[in-house]
Amino acid sequence: MKFSIFLNPQIPGSGWAAEENAKAKRPIGRDVESYQRLLHEVREIAVHADRIGFDALMMTEHHFHSEGFEFSVNPLMFLTDLAARTERILLAPLGIVLPAWDPIRAAEDVALLDHFSKGRLRLGVARGYQNRWMNVLGQRWHAAAARSDGSKSDDRNFDVFGEVLKIMKMAWAQDSLRYKSDVLDYEVPAPYSGIEGWPAQEWTQTFGAPGEIDENGIIQQVSVCPKPYQNPHPELWQPFTVSDRSVIRAAQEGIMPWMFTPNPDDHAAKAKLYQEECGRQGKDYKLGEHTGILKIVGMADTREEAIATYGKGMQKDFASFFGPFGYLEVLRKKEDDRHQPISPEKGDFKRMNEVEMALLGTPDDVKRGIQRMLDRMPDLEWFGLFMQGQQGVLPLDTVKRNLEMFATKVIPEFQD
């Protein structure tokens, strides 16, 4: 098994744990010194994780978070900074929200980071579920936030995601590109009949990609440069793949799904669906292979100390922010009324521990939690530490000690 850390970068001094400071600096997301503190902490964590043996670092894409939470405006740019400071750790936006991007600009930016890191990039791609920013940045494609409810709006988001990814793959694979989309108002070249009046005709005819310019000096194709460092492109990942149709498409597109299904049996069921669809695509994976799972991990010398340190700091932010988006459903237990939503009061660290969304305790407690997953999926490939309630909330030294304890006392038991 391989191990990653997953960051939703949080501005230090934001959220319920620092309520007075967060209100005094409102909106803290525009406070320059506070953001500099975030950059310092994330850089320290990345370098530390690289040195102590973690395999990957993952980061979300979100925008307009004036409150200071999930503060990862441009993960490709952020990870470029971290690539220059680290040596071996894989770097993964998890993920760039494709319906908010121009496909060719995205293909170029990804290729650049792949070169900057010399192939340490793993590319997470996502649909985008937060309407405050997705509806603004996705308006060019008439794509609103994903709702996973089967609505026309959700179908549009699903289709735009697939089309943007398709164009990106073509841009990476082909030396020159000509394409007219029937999903997006997008054509290459533009106009599709060709671009007239290109002054440097002889230059392009002599040195450009074959087919870029025709005998009449009209641009008929474009060459998206550079091509990625990895051939044909970085391995694709997808965060929080829960719906069956997203799991199936991930298998069809060769995407590795990261699943937010705390219960080992639930994860095994999704992994089985992925395995079966991959088999239909000619890829023979073992159960759990080419999938990842995320869990919150907090360790100390005693279980009581771990809960005191990590439990209380994460629950209110998690419940009050993620709860309204439906993420408290991952805490549902069999005895809960299936007709009633999970209330924020139930989104505490005790329930997180009970349903195994969080593993809080001693290193032995955490190892037993990981082993319970492996008992159901012996070939689970990736385990991710979701750092909810840690970076930006706890002292940086505490966060780094937790990572070091995991790296020295847990990883050696399971690492390939």
Q: Any overview of this molecule?
A:
- The protein is an alpha/beta fold and 416 residues long.
- The protein has a domain of 270 residues: Alpha-Beta Barrel (TIM Barrel), CATH 3.20.20.30.
- The protein is built from 14 helices and 12 strands.
- The strands form 2 sheets. Strands 1, 2, 3, 4, 5, 8, 9, 10, 11 and 12 form a 10-stranded parallel beta sheet that branches.
- A hairpin with a 6-residue loop joins strand 6 and strand 7.
- The longest helix is centred in the middle third of the chain and has 22 residues.
- The mean pLDDT is 93.
Q: So what's the overall shape? A: globular
Structural class: alpha/beta
- Please indicate the percent range of residues in DSSP E strands (runs of 2 or more): 5-15%
Low-confidence stretches: none
Which architecture of the domain at 2-95 and 239-414 per CATH? Answer: Alpha-Beta Barrel
Number of helices: 14
* CATH topology term of the domain at 2-95 and 239-414: TIM Barrel
Major sheet = 10 strands, parallel
GO molecular function: monooxygenase activity; oxidoreductase activity, acting on paired donors, with incorporation or reduction of molecular oxygen
Domain Luciferase-like: 29-372
Keywords: Monooxygenase, Oxidoreductase
Pfam families: Bac_luciferase
